[in-house]
Design goal:
16 helices; Serine Threonine Protein Phosphatase 5, Tetratricopeptide repeat; single chain; mainly alpha; 75% helix
Length: 301
């Protein structure tokens, strides 16, 4: 088979990816096509064919497939047992699209491991770090004491007690945007989204500049392991100010936690080049160096 055959198959693969939400048993056809593509890539490379452009396109579509692997796994298991299927056909692990169940388990295990390691980092530490970075002057002592007490209760899962203490802090310091932000987080955890949104809106209106709200909430979402929401807030912050170093630093941390190594390095590099805050610049360069030292970039993680 030729390079033209490869290009034709990649184009067919693209059509599957474009319609990925509507696939049913066609998932099996897509995976079989991906097998043929992989075999042809190996064969052409052995012959010395330059596949740079084709591999870039292929990786783009593979990235979408990996992002939707939970959905695809559900579709696949609806009509066959993947473990039995790949065992009978002796499908190699290099054909990772047949091993989505293992990839999902591995990703969950990595996430649990990361957050067990980070479990000792208290929420108040991150909030204090944010206060230091943004040079916000601490509020009156009693209000701060209440907030620290409420933070501790929140970490312990005592949501109703934390709400009561946060409200005491709010009564003493009604213009503090952090307090309604944390109340919004708790009500969201309780499943009371409308009430949470009311508090989030109050926090947003109190935040000055407005970007602080999204940076702060994104940071808390990150601490709680809610990466998708954290990314949305970091990107909203960057819509307000595309050159905000802290927003890029936050986004880099989220990507690093998700094991999206290339994306994390890209964000840390932006922070380094912006060089807005000496502390952020140093941390970004340090983290970027540690990632590069720890492991080379891999296309599948």
């Amino acid at each position: 088979m030729t390079l033209d055959d490869l290009r034709r198959m990649i184009e067919e693969y693209k059509d599957y990816i474009v319609n990925i939400y509507y696939l049913k048993q066609d998932v099996l056809k897509m995976f079989n096509l991906r097998d043929k593509i992989e075999d042809l890539v190996i064969d052409l490379e052995k012959k010395g064919t330059d596949l740079t452009a084709e591999k870039v396109r292929l990786e783009t579509f593979d990235t979408i497939l990996r992002k939707k692997m939970k959905m695809l796994q559900r579709k696949l298991t609806a009509f066959l047992n993947p473990q039995t299927y790949r065992k009978e056909r002796k499908i190699p692990h290099a054909h990772w699209w047949w091993y989505l169940d293992e990839l999902i388990k591995e990703k969950r295990a990595q996430r649990r491991k990361r957050w067990l390691i980070r479990g000792g980092i208290a929420l108040i530490t991150l909030l204090a770090l944010y206060i230091v970075m943004t040079r916000v002057i601490p509020q009156p002592k009693q209000s701060v004491i209440y907030q620290e007490e409420a933070d501790k209760l929140y970490q312990e899962g005592k949501l109703d007690e934390a709400i009561e203490i946060y409200k005491k802090a709010q009564a003493l310091d009604p213009d503090n945007s952090t307090i309604p932000l944390m109340l919004g987080m708790i009500y969201e955890d309780k499943g009371l989204q409308n009430k949470a949104n009311d508090y989030f809106e109050r926090a947003r209106l109190l935040s000055s500049p407005k970007i602080d709200f999204y940076n702060s909430r994104g940071m808390v979402y990150f601490q709680k392991g809610k990466f998708e929401k954290a990314i949305l807030d970091a990107k909203k912050a960057l819509e307000i100010d595309p050159n905000n170093a802290f927003s890029h630093f936050l986004l880099g941390n989220i990507y690093e936690a998700e094991n999206k190594i290339a994306e994390a390095i890209a964000e840390y590099r932006i922070v380094s080049e912006l060089d807005q805050d000496p502390k952020l610049t140093v941390m970004a360069r340090f983290k970027m160096g540690m990632i590069m030292q720890r492991a080379p970039l891999r296309s599948l993680e």
